[in-house]
Amino acid sequence: MGLSLLAPTDIKAISFMDSSKFNHSLVKLKAGVGYKKKDFGVAFGKRIHCSAAQTPPPAWPGTAVVEPGRKTWDGPKPISIVGSTGSIGTQTLDIVAENPDKFKVVALAAGSNVTLLADQVKTFRPQLVAVRNESLIHELKEALADADYKPEIVAGEQGVIEVARHPDCVTVVTGIVGCAGLKPTVAAIEAGKDIALANKETLIAGGPFVLPLAHKHKVKILPADSEHSAIFQCIQGLPEGALRRIILTASGGAFRDLPVEKLKDVKVADALKHPNWNMGKKITVDSATLFNKGLEVIEAHYLYGSDYDDIEIVIHPQSIIHSMIETQDSSVLAQLGWPDMRLPILYTLSWPERIYCSEVTWPRLDLCKLGSLTFKEPDNVKYPSMHLAYAAGRAGGTMTGVLSAANEKAVEMFIDEKISYLDIFKVVELTCQKHQDELVTSPTLEEIIHYDLWARDYASSLQPASSGLSPALV
């Protein structure tokens, strides 16, 4: 799978791959290439490195410092939640319900689940509520007609933005999915709110624009997903320059034990059988392809300022170690725990404090009962997504957002049985290849959103053909 991404100045002279020669079962890769991605950046015998000009300053450095006098509220910490009816939003509200002395909700935004949103309003009594789907405003008001408390209700994208920048909130939980979360996150940053980051597109697509903005407004971007929370927890107290390497752990997904030659025959139902837990369809497929981990590599680069040569992936089937770091003296630090998204969300909300958790609702890890932890290198032939992610990351600019959007569309097409499992990789790579001519290295927010939409449209135009995927004729 001849990946070849160089610096942006060389980008027009190269190709992601010769799609006519793409045959997953026959792909031959450089011997010995494992999760050490240093070999993923070799093109035409030339090592690829991220130049200083390509790499925005990290939103969060390799040390965590609490500024004097930072706390500006009395009583429970006021938070807003964008995407309150989704998985991240509901788990955040579980934490608020269990810790009413620590947190309070001042604003909620949801997409279209009005019934659940109305229940949340009655329970948490926010000051402001937004419904992205404007046609459902009347339905929400009806659902709250008999409530003894009625918040201000706003509609549409602008309403979601108002929730994100609510004047009373200190931290905004960005649980909304996709590029729809970018504008509210930008509004929150411009309003000086800290970000509890659960929206991947904020950094994967928006990193080149969002990070300088976060520095300008002196806000913290605190990761709410388990892998990046693990890294964040491990770097606490490290002196400047002490971080040497980031090691992202991956479950390996549904096909981690399946011989690679059988991948051509797998079906949607097979990809949705995660060996460890039940999740949504999209993230479960991403776990099977390992695109979830490739995207996390890009996030880690933006969050911690680490070069792609210093970010690695390792398969850890038990999913107990959520990620690790290596320090300059070769010490390795890890964060362990049962797989439970509430823990990283809790730490994101409570940082720099640690909040006591009941053993009833938060089971404690017992390593003796667990028995053993195992690790192995990911198979490069089984997971071409690693090559794609590292290559897109090194290209920088709008390429990472195009990668993410193309993958999202490809997974949707696979779930709808319009393409095969192996076609997911082809769709993503062909879309990234097409984007090389229009790559923007320092994009505006509008350009980021434009190319997200473009990538989805282009990916959806790709149709199966005997020699590989090709754009559909118009």
Notable traits:
chloroplast, disordered N terminus, alpha/beta, globular, 1-deoxy-D-xylulose-5-phosphate reductoisomerase
CA gyration radius, whole angstroms? 22 Å
Decide which structural class fits the backbone: alpha/beta
Strand percentage: 5-15%
Going across the biggest sheet, name each strand in turn: 6-5-4-3-7-8-9
- Oligomeric assembly: single chain
- How far apart lie the N and C ends? 29 Å
- The unreliable regions are 1-54
Main sheet attributes: strand count, strand direction, barrel closure: 7 strands, parallel
List the helices and strands and how they pair.
Blueprint: E1 42-43, E2 46-47, E3 77-82, H1 87-98, E4 103-110, H2 114-124, E5 128-131, H3 137-143, E6 152-155, H4 156-164, E7 171-174, H5 182-190, E8 194-197, H6 201-204, H7 207-217, E9 221-223, H8 226-234, E10 243-250, H9 268-271, H10 281-289, H11 291-304, E11 311-315, E12 321-327, E13 332-336, H12 342-350, H13 367-370, H14 385-395, H15 399-415, H16 423-435, H17 445-461, E14 462-463, E15 470-471
Helix pairs in contact: 4-5, 10-15, 11-14, 15-16, 15-17, 16-17
EC number: 1.1.1.267
Family: Belongs to the DXR family.
Domain 1-deoxy-D-xylulose 5-phosphate reductoisomerase C-terminal: 221-304
Describe the model.
This protein has 474 residues and is of the alpha/beta class. Helix content is 36%, strand content 14%. The chain has 17 helices and 15 strands. A seven-stranded parallel β-sheet has the order 6-5-4-3-7-8-9, with helices on both faces. Strands 11-10-12-13 form a four-stranded mixed β-sheet, with helices on one face. The chain has a two-stranded antiparallel ribbon with strand order 1-2. Helix 4 (156-164) packs across helix 5 (182-190), helix 11 (291-304) runs parallel beside helix 14 (385-395) and helix 15 runs parallel beside helix 17. The longest helix is centred in the C-terminal third of the chain and has 17 residues, at 399-415. The radius of gyration is 22 Å and the shape is globular. The two termini are 29 Å apart.
